[in-house]
Amino acid sequence: MRVEGGRKSLSRPEIGCHFWEGEVAVRGTSVRYSEAFKRQVVEQIDRGKYHSAEEARRAYGIRGARTVWNWIKAYGRAELQAKRIRIETMDEVDEMKAARKRIRELEAALADAHMDSLLEHAFLEIACERMDTTLEDFKKKHALTLSDVRKMRGVK
Q1: How far apart are the first and last CA of the chain?
Q2: Are 3 and 11 in contact (CB under 8 A)?
Q3: What is the biggest distance separating any 2 CA atoms in the chain, rounded to whole angstroms?
Q4: pTM of the prediction?
Q5: 95 in the same domain as 149
Q6: Does residue 21 share a domain with residue 65?
């Protein structure tokens, strides 16, 4: 860093970046980086010049906290990207397996119930057609409530 006329130079000629303090940090301005620059930063991390995205970000004066990570995601190798590791006990693994199995069983039961409902509706339409009545008239004449159906089935 050098000082000229009371202004600090924040230039980085080795990367082709020239500016003075206060010129970049203006509120509301955004810095756009070229594709070549982005790839260069990612390549230097890849080669080991910088040991982390944060180190490269500080070295180049990149303001965005996630900017370099986004570049790594776009241009870098998979092993450079952060990974999420989940550690579970065997009980948790078994619990998850049981929950997934239960979900599959419930989804199958729901599909069966839906098919049963569709079949019952189709049978009712056929019966109404054979009795020469409309479905609406049949429903009005033979209106049943859920409690009536439960009583007929012996369910409380």
Answers
A1: 84
A2: no
A3: 102
A4: 0.39
A5: yes
A6: no
